[in-house]
């Protein structure tokens, strides 16, 4: 082989100045993160628990601060408080979803099994406490709460084994369809069973024992803070147990099954048994959360446990980071807290919303810099298209809101969402068509449309959240369904992925890049 064959005939392009700037920013970020990890790893073990202890103290004190501020000033905690709803109630619901997300993460994140019917276990735990503890149920046993919760956990584990026994030999989409059917079977069974209250539900569900210093019940209807502290303690306990499981032989078996089930089975791992363990443990955590939720509500009916709630559980896991215990908690915070905080928009929150939106767009530009800033012409087309799309989207969104409001329809929010949905569908089709062209003008047009659609949805969302009132649940399903699609495309590892998962996806990107350049 001659020397000329080994020497490239043309020098690689240096790239645009923007590409070099964004490369430098990304390198600085990686260096900073590496330095932080190195210093954090060098700290003594007790010192690493100090930030976690401070965070736990803040979480414990949040309901107390909110209550004292409401009594003294008439408003709750600034910025993070929920002025239009009970802050303690929102915190409790976040905790219930976080507990379910941790349990579902055992199934989806650790074992790699897709479960779309997790709400079924949540419902079994809730109805167990209701049926065995409420004097209003047909059984009328009125067992104490401390007995009902273990019964609920045991029954959900049995349900997990019953579901997993015949179905865990399936994989992928087939398993997802079966689990989705399980969630609906549980709900429809409740609707059509008299001892379970049918669609009317069951009331007078028992609450945890305990009394205050004045003799009143600790876990009452008005003060929700004790329920929040209870579920916070349970989250810490489950995190410790799940962390120990992850580091044990069981956790290593789950990891092997998630990576390659056939290879794990050839190496002697009893895959069916460990998948059954994952289903049973995940179901038990979901049943525990359902039991606490039923006790807090004091009433349950089947409408609470629909398939959309199960999708929200999965959204918390995917958005937060599948396989990361703390990532799924962040996902639960986003799924539950963010829509509640957005119920009443003020100017400060509106400005913060757009700051977050701009930061998200900047992060997207940096992460896709190799494509967007490859040459000077492409960098200029990206900047021009992005800025124009941002400005036009803000103007169009504001005018669209004004027009819809002035129309005076009975449901302006529905008209607003419909108009944005039509614009979004048409825009995505145009992006697809324009993106197929290779010219720089087509690239600028695609960037313009992408920025326009992203910012338009961001500009309209505050108005929609502000006006929708009691219908915020429907918008939550839409918003997080869209978020799941976006996360699957642009960041499949989630916001806080496990280190192993992030490394896997980075290696796949390198393999794809090598294959393209070969």
TrEMBL record:
> Per UniProt, which keywords does this protein have?
Cell membrane, Membrane, Transmembrane, Transmembrane helix
* Cell compartment(s), UniProt: Cell membrane
Q: What is this protein called?
A: ABC-type branched-chain amino acid transport system, permease component
The record, for InterPro entries, names:
ABC_transp_permease, LivM-like
* Chief location bin: membrane
Q: Name one GO molecular function term.
A: branched-chain amino acid transmembrane transporter activity
Q: Which GO cellular component terms are attached? A: plasma membrane
Q: What Pfam family does this protein match (any one)?
A: BPD_transp_2
